[in-house]
Specification:
5% helix; globular; two-stranded antiparallel ribbon; mainly beta
Length: 187
Amino acid sequence: MQVIETELPGVLILEPKVFGDARGYFLETYRANRYAEFGIPQLVQDNQSYSTHGVLRGLHVQHPHAQGKLVQVLEGEVFDVAVDIRRGSPHFGRWTGVTLSGENKRQFWVPPGFAHGFVVTGEHALFVYKNTDYYSPETEFSVRWDDPAIGIEWPLEGAPSLSQKDGAARCLADIPADRLPGYEDYA
């Protein structure tokens, strides 16, 4: 497996080894002891979503019960984003992104304390992710996808399709500090 560090410490792009022939391919998508070598803790919950072109999901956060997410696209293509929202972090408000697709088979590690989102850039996307903590709807919130202070360069053609929750999200500066994870909690 090749591991690529991003400009945000702890956020990783992983390229699993793919073994293929005329019959198809095989790859290992998770092994706890191997992923622990890269700082990825044990994962406890798997999720899957299907979305069509132009759907934007995020930027999602849980605090407390912050979730680290190991994300991957099985079919289709997305532009995936992590934003550091840890109070006191030297990288607070900065983002990084990567294209994930069924073809490139890359994975993206979004550590706890980061907001996460993606936009579907292909016709559709079958998106899977493993989490470090269980879903906690009472602690979940969203950061506005187009927050000008963050300045994510989404590869969009027109306005994205958003859920009601994501459409009503607030900018990072408008979220009370006690709702945000602390850098010291997830450094």
